[in-house]
Amino acid sequence: MRRRTVERAEIIEAARRCFVERGVREATVEDVACDSGVSRATVYRTVGGRSDLIRAVMLDEGIELFRNVGLAMGAATSAAGLVAAGVSAALATIRERPALRRFAGPDLAEVLPVLTLGAAPVIEGSVNLLVPILASARDRGVVDADADLRHAAEEMIRYVLGLLHTPSAAADLAAPEVGAERAARLFGPLLAVRPAPASLVGQGPLTTSRDPDLARSWSAAHNET
Questions:
Q1: Quick one: average pLDDT of 196-215?
Q2: In angstroms, rounded to a whole number, what is the distance separating the alpha carbons of residues 56 and 44?
Q3: What is the mean pLDDT of residues 194-199?
Q4: Total tally of structural domains belonging to the chain
Q5: Contact of 82 with 153, CB cutoff 8 Å
Q6: What is the CA radius of gyration of the chain?
Q7: Mean pLDDT of all residues in 170-176
Q8: Is the pLDDT reported for residue 3 higher than 80?
């Protein structure tokens, strides 16, 4: 089992090199097999065909992308800031990583099937990486305790993928803050901490509130009554 895992990792790394050096259109399964030192049949058995190799490289690149996203989101103090930081970090990483830059630029037409009709595994894998980051923000009080994290994560992932499909992709990658600000307006409300119901006013301090500003506001209102 360990050898199979190592073999798969070596094949994915070879595919990444081939896509970056030759381009997605020119790189073949035979190239990947030769570069990784295994047979063509082993590539098919271990990872799959060309689309599977593209998807595997995308998911592998996603680990580094979401590491950067997590670091950026970790400093956010509001839901809107959280979304903006995450999307900006994602777009900046796509611009900086050679394989992702190729997928989003000169080779976009070649990878579109993986990002559209075949996007389900990429979206699911990305959501699984993003949800723990949002959960951490929820635990810090930046995200509402009752927010649907998987729904918000999927919407954000689809938004970033949508940017890569459009003619403005180059502009979005050149100025990540523009797409980030738009994302904050769209998805910030899905995660923002909700005010306490009016019926709670007068019933004692909000000691369980995850939003310290909200707790202070309640206390001030309570002291005035």
A1: 51
A2: 12
A3: 74
A4: 3
A5: no
A6: 22
A7: 77
A8: no
